[in-house]
Amino acid sequence: MIKKVSFYKLKIVISCLVVFAILYLIGCGSPIIPNRTKPMVNVYNGARAYCTKVGVKGLAREVNKSLVENEYIVGEPKNLSDYKVETEILFNPADEDFAKDILEIVTVGKLLPQEEVSEGNIQIILGMDAVVPTFETLNVENMILVLNSTRRRGLAKRISVDIDNNLSKKYKFYTPDDADRHSYETQIYYPAELLKVANEVREAVGYGKMTAVENLKDVVVVLGLEFDPRTKARLGLTRDEDIPEIRIVIKKTDFMLRGYDLSGNLLFEYPVGIGKNQDLGDKKEVGDNRTPEGTFKVVSIEDSSSWIFEGEYAYGPWFIRLATQPWTGIGLHGTNEPEKIGTPTSRGCIRLHNEHLEKLLKVIKRGSTIEIRH
């Protein structure tokens, strides 16, 4: 009798587990493991002028349609900038699985986890590389676009002629235009199949950081400040080999970033904002609003001028990304709330006044180290 009762109970337990598993897998959730609500997604067209050149309309709107078909809640699509090259998907690290799913839907983009982005709110800033995947029937001929980030009159047109004369095979050119902002260095973006053309373009230009971009159909040249020494001098920009060796230390309890030479002499100090958790302690988990402590390398310096947070350009001109494993999305950036600098205000990043951030970029580069202390 005891054996029969035990077997009967075992059958009930197994049946319940099977029901729970089936409900969970088909998306109904269960009392034990409820499904997470999909995040809100806001889509911005960062390649408005480029869309006009290739003859398409409604880039952000088309991406919104794809997201809605996959049961995402989307905001009103908006135009943002004229010539962003690479699509970026910004998200809180807690929403990484959803961000990866969105990347599969959009089929293009770089995933950029940001502690500062609110959980449950994903931002997509569409670049030129999103146009062809979004409009699959669009027949885009490979062309060359020259953008002038120096604003020196006639420069892009003159460089276009130099490039044209240097090409072994003739390609068509879009009408040159001004870039969205100053570029610290000349950039040459290209699809992998046009590497030979991109190399010829670089030879004609004389400068250029080469970047292959998946799904991009054109060679895009952004003329940097090498072509405008006066602007470069006014901004105080230097080449990497001229950057002095210094030590950067951020002390959280002082809300200060300090730069020292190798002899320990103080060179400069800037106030900062840090994670808004009032204990000012070391980071322990995703979403705890703490700034991690340790010595971290700069892994990239990204143009964050078009990044949106709660409907505003909140990150300032640059995002200095740090390798803070196991945490992702931590870095130094500017702010649209300068009055909060000097307080615990962020979700984990270090905020600076925009003008101090620009000055900091004169003395650090990719590979530099930044020490963050309590």
In total, the number of domains comes to 3
**Could you give the distance between the termini?**
65 Å
The overall strand count is: 24
Task: Give the strand line-up of the largest sheet.
Answer: 15-14-13-24-17-20-21-23
Number of helices: 9
Mean pLDDT: 88
CATH topology of the largest domain: L,D-transpeptidase catalytic domain-like
CATH classification class of the largest domain: Mainly Beta
CATH second-level architecture of the largest domain: Beta Barrel
Radius of gyration: 25 Å
Shape verdict: globular
Largest sheet: 8 strands, mixed
How does the helix and strand content classify structurally? Answer: alpha/beta
Please report which band the strand proportion falls in: under 5%, 5-15%, 15-25%, 25-35%, 35-45% or over 45%: 25-35%
What is the CATH superfamily of the largest domain?
Answer: L,D-transpeptidase catalytic domain-like
Helical fraction equals 25-40%
Question: What low-confidence regions span 5 or more consecutive residues with pLDDT below 50?
Answer: 1-5, 25-34
